[in-house]
Amino acid sequence: DAKTTQPNSMESNEEEPVHLPCNHSTISGTDYIHWYRQLPSQGPEYVIHGLTSNVNNRMASLAIAEDRKSSTLILHRATLRDAAVYYCILVPSGSARQLTFGSGTQLTVLP
Amino acid sequence: NAGVTQTPKFQVLKTGQSMTLQCAQDMNHEYMSWYRQDPGMGLRLIHYSVGAGITDQGEVPNGYNVSRSTTEDFPLRLLSAAPSQTSVYFCASSWGQTNTEAFFGQGTRLTVV
How many Å separate Cα A103 from the centre of its chain? Predict the structure, then answer.
């Protein structure tokens, strides 16, 4: 299975944009890129996903490199509530919806 | 809309005891799965189900059993609890397509002493 690489931790100031990187150099052509986050003492929460094109939703934006070997989750204006562990996960097309979690990026938001 | 509901939220077991962690979803999702999360680590897949009557093993299935008699419920059974099973357990559900999101429960924190 294709793996992802994320920084262990990042810091951001409140109300500033945050760019969370993810490398997935062995991604296959039919792998979807999903992002989840986990707030303290809670279950993971879906953030966004994409295949080839950049995606926007109410929570975040997902920028996917043209060669799909990396992607960036963008939080446009970080709030204290965005402090969480962010997971970048590749989901193969046709899989049984199994999610393989790495260790993710711990985002700290400074007031 | 309750989403994915896990019970209990907390449980302490003695080594060798058995118990069942409950998971129910009200979204008519086909896929359900169980994960465990040890301190400071990501989630690891224990068992999953692609529909009623169909289950399969994930990455760490030893010591756990599952069954799926209805679409809504996917219980996880610990046969003989061991301290190594101390963890936080999460249940998730989703539609079948890979371009849809998974919904997670709030977790069951299990301690085996």
Answer: 12
Q: Are B106 and B7 in contact (CB under 8 A)?
A: no
Spatial contact of A81 and A19, defined as CB atoms under 8 Å apart: no
Residue A94: list chain B partners with CB under 8 A. Answer: 98
Q: Do B107 and A93 touch (CB under 8 A)?
A: no
Which residues in chain B have their CB less than 8 angstroms from residue A95's CB? 98
Q: Tell me how far apart the alpha carbons of residues B56 and B97 are, in angstroms, rounded to a whole number.
A: 18
* Rounded-to-5 percentages of helix, strand, coil across chain A: 5, 50, 50
pLDDT in tens, A88-108: 999 887 665 678 888 899 999
SS3 of A18-59: EEEEEECCCCCCCEEEEEEEECCCCCCEEEEEECCCCEECCC
In 3D space, the residue among B60, B111, B58 whose CA is nearest the CA of residue B82 turns out to be B111
Chain A environment of B95 (Cβ under 8 Å): 97
* A89 in reach of chain B (CB within 8 A): no
Q: Which residues contact B30 (CB under 8 A, 6 or more apart)?
A: B50, B51, B71, B94, B95, B96
A23-79 pLDDT per residue, tens = 999 998 889 999 999 999 999 999 999 999 999 999 899 999 999 999 999 999 999
